[in-house]
User: What shape does this take?
Amino acid sequence: MIQISRRQLITSAMASAALPHAALAKTSTEITWDDLIPSGVSYSEIIAEGTIDEQNDVWLPVYDENATKLNPILNGAYIKIPGYIIPIDLSTEGVTSFVLVPYVGACLHTPPPPANQLVFVTTLKPWPSDNLWDAVWVTGHMEHGIQTTEVAETVYLLKAEEMETYVW
Assistant: This one.
């Protein structure tokens, strides 16, 4: 039987508490927007012909069943993805839920991208409202799930644990 003295026990507990948090941190997988599309489906297969509203000078895409197909590898994955914020829940403290989009103006100035090219994000720590036009990195756990908002339908949900400005 191994005996440990009280002093050894306390010393080892203190040493464990002093470990850097970075050593215990989870490592995220950095993904791109192409990774949201399942293997074997090309982006060109997601968008069908669509129509042009000549009066309003707007293209109205028609999405087929490929627009909601999900990458099964991402369900439950801890990921990091860049994008732009379209706020949903905004207060004086900042935004706590938003749609993450792949390019500036998506959903606002153009028709929304396909559902599998949008991510509905929730965060406990509000992102400052004065930084809404910045590109951001969002890190957290990704899940599959349909979310309908006033701007678009999404099929990916991300619980943000960390956000930072995307630096080019």
